Amino acid sequence: MVTNEDYTLNAGFLRTMASQIARMQGMGHEVVIVSSGAVAAGRSCIKIEHEKKSIPFRQALAAIGQGILMKTYDRFFHKYGINVAQGLLTNYDFANRANFFNTKNVFELLLKKKVIPIVNENDVTTIAEIKFGDNDILSAKTASMISADFLVLLTDVDGLFSADPKENPDAVLLNFVDKIDEKITSVAGGARSGNSRGGMITKVRAAQYSTEEGTHMFIVNGHAKKIIAKVAEFCEKFAAYNEEILVAKNAGSTKKIALPKFKYGTFFISNANLVPSHKKWLRPKVMSDAWIEIDCGALKALANSGKSLLPSGITAVHGEFERGDVVFIKCGQESVGYGQVNYGAEEIDKIKKQGTDKIEDILGFCFEEEAIHRDRMVVCIE
């Protein structure tokens, strides 16, 4: 969206986006922008005949182009009396507790002063983002960090379809997704999202990340007329809907309240409670190939009673991890949360299904009675 087919910056899109966001800010909304385009801006500055494909070369282009990109944003927002600020982040800034809260505090101060942060991956020091993927997950992590109500992904397709519309003429746009299951990820894996490096599957992964953290997410076509304003209008309707639900619930009413319809793209609704700020740094550290499986009794204790996870409720251990790692918690095949373990995989495997009084007898030591303490755990179900 930020760049043209010839890799130059898309000034027309950026100008239109700035206009709509300025209007949003005037309505009282706080906005953070996660933007690509630094490498493209670098290409527009250095004229080359044969571009090298090496990562350091692309990093050099990003280093040159980041300043140009920021100048472009500054020029368009300056017209509306809005200041912008640069935020270059790495995965370490999300996974390290001190970095996470320092960055969060800076962003909160900028928003309080009505400054719009322009966030990008620190391409000069981070290899992974340049080699593969795009800013979808970065935007989801940023939204989580600042406890955003909504995340909007602007792309060059209308949203998530039931099948690839370029291959299946019967494919329909999915306007509303309330659960990201295997069917949704399968559809996304076979779909395309224009020129995006990550494709539709990374956008759905970003939606899963965001909705688990309590943030609702949209996938919309950034080329659509006044799309940001239309999304903002729906967000206000959705906030009113949530307020009406809450009032009815407190009054003990069983009245059915209709969810406002979204017809401009795909809306992923979060059914999770907003994750407390002091636990948000855990999510970026979650291992993708390791998890703990629990029984129904443990699930009930975690979901309904706010308990820690004890060894007695663990039925199986999958993958390899060490004390201090963050792993998913599953009941059967369903992920129900994640947390920082007090023991490694081999140790938990030995004490699973056992009472806390047996830990020292089995291991010869006892770090904690809990496999995962409640203060270092997030439960993603109601």
What series of H and E elements makes up the topology?
A: HEHHEHHEHHEEHHEHEEHEEEHHE
Spatial gap, N to C terminus: 37 Å
* Low-confidence sequence ranges: none
At the fold tier of CATH, the topology name of the largest domain is: Carbamate kinase
Number of structural domains: 2
Number of strands: 12
**Average pLDDT:** 89
Rg: 23 Å
- Oligomerization: single chain
Shape: globular
Beta-sheet strand percentage? 15-25%
- Biggest sheet overview: 5 strands, mixed
CATH architecture of the largest domain: 3-Layer(aba) Sandwich
Question: How do the strands line up in the largest sheet?
Answer: 9-8-10-11-12
For this structure, what is the CATH homologous superfamily of the largest domain? Acetylglutamate kinase-like
Number of helices: 13
What is the highest CATH level, the class of the largest domain?
Alpha Beta
- Structural class, please? alpha/beta
Helix content: 25-40%
Short description:
With about 375 residues, the chain is an alpha/beta fold. Helices cover about 40% and strands about 20% of the residues.
Describe the structure.
- This protein is α/β, with parallel strands linked by helices and 382 residues long.
- Helix content is 40%, strand content 18%.
- Strands 9-8-10-11-12 form a five-stranded mixed β-sheet. The protein has a four-stranded mixed β-sheet with strand order 4-6-7-5, with helices on both faces.
- Helix 8 (182-189) runs antiparallel to helix 9.
- The longest helix has 24 residues, at 55-78.
